[in-house]
Amino acid sequence: MYKKMRFRSLKKIWPKAKMERLIMTFVVCVVLAVYYILMEIVLPELSEYGTPIYIFQRVLALFCASNILSNLVMCILVDSTIDPKCMRDQLERGRNNEDWHKCDVCRILAPPRASHCNACDVCVLKRDHHCIVTGCCIGHANYRYFFYFVIYLFLSCLISLISSFIFIFVLRGGKYQFRLLRMPVPYLQKNHIGNYDFDVNSNIMEIFDLGLPGRYELVFAVAFTMICIGICGAGYMIIEHWSVIKNGSICYEFKFQNFLYDRGLRRNFESFLGRRMKWTWISAFIPSPLPQDGFHWEPTDEDEGGDDRASEKII
Q1: pLDDT in tens, 231-275
Q2: Which of 295, 245, 299 is closest to 272 using CA atoms?
Q3: What three-state secondary structure class fits 262?
Q4: Based on the structure, what is the number of domains in the chain?
Q5: CA 266 from chain center: how many Å?
Q6: Is 123 among the domain residues?
Q7: Containing domain of residue 71, as a range?
Q8: Residue 280 falls within a domain, yes or no?
Q9: pLDDT given at position 208
Q10: Exposed (0-12), middle (13-18) or buried (19+): which is 303, by Cβ within 10 Å?
Q11: Is 181 contained in some domain?
């Protein structure tokens, strides 16, 4: 059993695929940029500086943003791949059995629920999927961080979306006049149509002026778009993985409706959040030892597990 958390080599942190590098960099930059925009543009319009609600919103934003980034970083750093040294120890003890399967690429005997990732070119313990945002596989040791990264991303985008809507539709007469929200038609209808002193050139310029966004308006429009994309993406991931989590399975097992390791909702959560799962939501840096070592998995019903375990060997 792993007693210490293993971290990936610094040489392996940077994704191999160019698209994954771009996505990972883009996500980090967008989170930081949106946080700055909301704190410097939106928050001063919502609450008066120094008031309790202002301080609460500041602390909440810092808490959510820090958890997004820290869980993303830990998800990348924590290693879920099979350690060759640990494998030798397991094989020397003779604890492998018929559940273990051979990986022709790595040329090793891999434990149950482990599978080879072509993108990472390595076998991963309890491999769930390869994440294009982190550029690594999500498996036994780092699923906790992936889970909280998605959860906090969704909650942060939801809170930001509500705050942005309040800012746009309730407080749009504030510090920044958002011309993106105004249309030329109402402007023309107000004291201009039917005016005998109608100056065509000057009014056309005013119409174009109303249609062109200012610097802050354009920045906020981009941030608002990113928030909408974030809430849709994170929401989709939560819906996609909830059925997998509640059944104590991984994506491959769920595909074949193989719930061999389902031990109830609480123990299923404990299997990836760890024994101190009640406190893991506070920070990614709170240690929470996992109940399994990633090598040995006891099926819920050993009598009916033979066929299902055999199917896992072809992963």
Answers
A1: 999 999 999 999 999 999 999 899 888 888 999 999 999 999 999
A2: 245
A3: coil
A4: 1
A5: 22
A6: no
A7: 10-82+140-175+213-297
A8: yes
A9: 45
A10: exposed
A11: no
